[in-house]
Structure formats: C-alpha cells, structure tokens
Design brief:
Strands 1, 3, 5, 6, 8 and 9 form a 6-stranded mixed β-sheet that branches. A 3-stranded antiparallel β-sheet has the order 2-4-7, with no helix packed on it. The radius of gyration is 20 Å and the shape is globular. It is built from 2 helices and 9 strands, in the order H-E-E-E-E-E-E-E-E-E-H. The longest helix is centred in the first third of the chain and has 19 residues, at 2-20. The chain has helices at residues 2-20, 151-157, and strands at residues 30-31, 40-48, 52-54, 57-66, 73-81, 84-92, 104-113, 121-131, 136-150. The protein is of the alpha+beta class. It starts with a helix and ends with a helix. GO terms for molecular function: sterol binding. This is MD-2-related lipid-recognition domain-containing protein.
C-alpha cells in the first residue's frame, strides 16, 4: 500500500509541475491605481529574452486594447532597483507602436540594451501611457530580475 501511495504522490507532483510550469515565468502586471478605469487596458507583458541578461538587448512587449482612437501621446517608463529610481525615459508613443492606434488590440514594443555593468537583482518597471494632452490612459507596474552573468561573461567562461 505504501508503494502505491508513493507512486500516486509522484504522479500528483508531476501533474502539478506540468500545470504550474507554463506560469513560472509569467509577468505579474498590476495597475498603478486599481480603482481607476483606464482607457487603455493592458492584458500582458512579454520580456524577450527572459530572464534578462546583462549586455543583451531586451524587448518589452505590452499587449493592450482601447475603445478610443489614439492619434499620439507619450510612453513614460520609470525603473527602480530595490526601491531606488535608476532610470527614466519619455518616448513618443508613435515610435513604439503604429499610429494612429485604432480601437481594439494593439502592442507597444520597447527595446533596451542593458550595459554589462548593470547590477543583478530585482527591478520594478512602471509604465504610463499618456495622450497628447497628458491625460493618463493607463499605468502599470511589474517586477523583473536581471541575472548574475552577462551574455559576454557566459561566452568568456565557456
């Protein structure tokens, strides 16, 4: 009977891992103000490559939707490292997606090459999307981490 239970337990753990594994690298996106009914709804963030490697270009792709036509605006990005602001950038929305943004689904793509001296650890990114009148259309925040080794160091070590 004990052998059957241990086999059943192994099957249960294997099944659980198969269910959980696809979500292990999922990015947990939160709205800055949960009570605000933003005009732009964010459905997800994809980071490529993930985990992020120092010295390698990283692309953040934000999947979103809107019920209004967006003719332009700004994308404001702030990055914190263990609660300290380390990076801030404001970009023209039309350099990150095709403008005008029509109603429905769209994607915003931002690429950044991180220097090989970027400290490893936990980071928080806050992204605000503003229309041309500076009205906040959405604001999201999510955490990501940067590994201990850069791509250059990995190649040199091999």
């Amino acid at each position: 009977m004990a052998g059957f239970r241990s086999k059943l337990f192994v099957v249960f753990l294997s099944s659980l891992l198969l269910i959980i594994a696809p979500f292990a690298d999922a990015i947990d996106v939160k709205y800055c103000n949960k009570k605000n009914n933003y005009d732009v709804k964010v459905s997800g963030v994809e980071i490529t490559p993930y985990p992020i490697e120092r010295g390698t270009e990283t692309t953040f792709t934000i999947s979103a939707s809107t019920e209004s036509l967006l003719s332009g605006g700004n994308l404001v990005i702030d990055v914190s490292y263990y609660w300290f602001g380390v990076y801030s950038e404001t970009s023209d929305l039309c350099t990150k997606t095709t403008c005008p943004v029509t109603t429905g689904d769209f994607a915003i793509s931002h690429s950044q090459s991180l220097p090989s001296v970027t400290p490893p650890g936990s980071y928080t990114l806050t992204m605000k999307l503003q229309d041309s009148n500076k009205k906040e259309l959405t604001c999201i925040t999510f955490d990501f981490s940067i590994g201990w080794y850069s791509a250059e160091e990995a190649v040199a070590a091999s």
